[in-house]
Design a protein that fits this description.
- This protein is an alpha/beta fold.
- 28% of the residues lie in helices and 21% in strands.
- The protein has two domains: 266 residues, Rossmann fold (3-Layer(aba) Sandwich), CATH 3.40.50; 94 residues, no CATH class.
- The protein has ten helices and 18 strands.
- The strands form four sheets. An eight-stranded mixed beta sheet has the order 3-12-11-4-5-7-6-8, with helices on both faces. A six-stranded antiparallel beta sheet has the order 16-15-14-13-17-18.
- The radius of gyration is 25 Å and the shape is elongated.
- It starts with a strand and ends in a 22-residue tail after the last helix.
- The structure holds S-adenosylmethionine.
- S-adenosylmethionine (SAM) binds next to helix 1 and strand 12.
């Protein structure tokens, strides 16, 4: 059984997420999706013009004494999420106008770095029954990373393919959860705010990888866990109501994961390779310094043209490592280390640092200039074709 600290993975745990999150190890989760209480503060009941009662969110889990209490609660759970998220991870939080602006401000104060806000446009929103306001037809999602320098996952090309070869936009047209997808108990909605499977599908497929760990602190009907399992991710979810834990566990048990080969991201371009010379040009490796094998047995000096000289032999990082190992070829990236603060640091790690620092902006450049986005301003193709039950 896969573990995450004291927890078994692929399980929905009952309890207060603030307490449960405290038991999750630091930097251990790849993706968090949080659909926290909205703090709707509805007063009284709402009726349609034909006097039938509107099924609005009026649950005990959405009751807070004041905005300050809500902010305190938000800060507590979100700080824990920040702690447990890997530096390469993604944090998603969804809300309505009632809470998303408070949540967004707190998120930035904690240190998350915002990448996008996504507008989920509901193709079939509940009407404004009183006719006193615009029809509230969307919710807002915030996509953020742990910090500005996070090396996060984003399957850009897959998202583009998903959107008929146009850049996936930040306005997503998805119907609210209804029909067969909606979990019912004795003919009644089992959960008042079950999110559509498509929404979680798009989030998880775009910003995580198979086998990644997905965490949902406010699991409700278990949509995140269900879609994470379907997409070959590991999951852990927290929910304070016993009844929801029961129905969501039953829901998730019925899910069959998609076969591994079908989950591969084949349209994603490989990152451009970083040649050793780039590390020298940017000062990650200094001309004249020595590189060492991990056991310290071998060393070679870096020359100005990026070659290494050791034991009278001159050549690339690969050639000189192969020479020492008496092999025809060898991958120098895994052989050589530099000394930094009396410790050995792999040049492969330096290459990774280089990618984090320089290639993320390259990716943006790529998006802006090399893609055919001439039709980028056309409205997104309706995503409905995916269908609720295809997931
Ligand atoms: C907006 S709903 C989430 C719905 C979910 N995304 C779905 O698709 O079903 C929020 C859920 O968080 C739960 N909840 C509220 N406060 C909690 C807390 N402190 N710890 C754990 N769960 C909590 C509620 O019981 C509710 O089921």
């Amino acid at each position: 059984m896969d573990k995450l600290g004291v927890f078994d993975l692929n399980k929905i745990y009952e309890g207060n997420c603030i307490e449960l999150l405290k038991k999750v190890p630091d930097n251990s989760v790849d993706l968090i999706f949080a659909d926290p209480p909205y703090n709707l503060q509805l007063n009284g009941e709402l009726y349609r013009p034909n006097q039938t009662k509107v099924d609005a969110v009026n649950d005990a889990w959405d009751k807070f004494e004041s905005k300050e209490e809500y902010d305190k609660f938000t800060t507590l759970w979100m700080k824990e999420c920040h702690r447990v998220l890997k530096n390469s991870g993604s944090f998603w939080v969804i809300g309505t106008y009632h809470n998303i602006f408070r949540v967004g401000a707190i998120l930035q104060n904690i240190g998350f770095w915002m990448l996008n806000d996504i507008i989920w446009i509901k193709t079939n929103p509940m009407p404004n029954f009183k006719g006193t306001r615009f029809n509230n037809a969307h919710e807002t999602l915030i996509w953020a990373t742990k910090s500005k320098s996070s090396n996060y996952t984003f399957h850009y090309h897959s998202m583009k393919v998903m959107n008929d070869d146009l850049q996936m936009r930040s306005d997503w047209l998805i119907p609210i959860c209804q029909g067969e997808e909606r979990i019912k108990v004795n003919g009644q909605k089992a959960h008042s705010t079950q999110k559509p499977a498509e929404l979680l599908y798009r989030i998880i497929i775009s910003t995580s990888n198979p086998d990644d760990i997905v965490l949902d602190p406010f699991s409700g009907s278990g949509t995140t866990a269900a879609i994470a399992k379907r997409l070959g991710r590991k999951f852990i979810a927290f929910e304070r109501e016993e009844f929801y834990v029961k129905i969501s566990t039953e829901r998730v048990e019925k899910i069959k994961p998609i076969e591994k080969p079908l989950l591969e991201y084949k349209v994603e371009k490989r990152k451009p390779k970083v040649p050793f010379g780039n590390l020298i040009e940017k000062g990650f490796v200094k001309i004249g310094e020595y590189l060492y094998s991990k056991d310290g047995k071998f060393s070679a000096q870096v020359l100005a043209d990026s070659s290494l000289e050791g034991n009278g032999i001159v050549g690339s990082i690969h050639k000189v490592s192969a020479y020492y190992l008496k092999k025809e070829n060898h991958n120098g990236w895994t052989f050589w280390y530099v000394k930094r603060n009396n410790a050995l640091v792999s040049i492969d790690q330096l290459r990774h640092d280089y990618e984090t620092k320089y290639l993320k902006s390259f990716q943006n450049y790529d998006e802006l200039d090399f893609e055919d986005n001439s039709k980028v301003n056309e409205p997104e193709k309706n995503f409905l074709t995916y269908g609720n039950n295809g997931l």
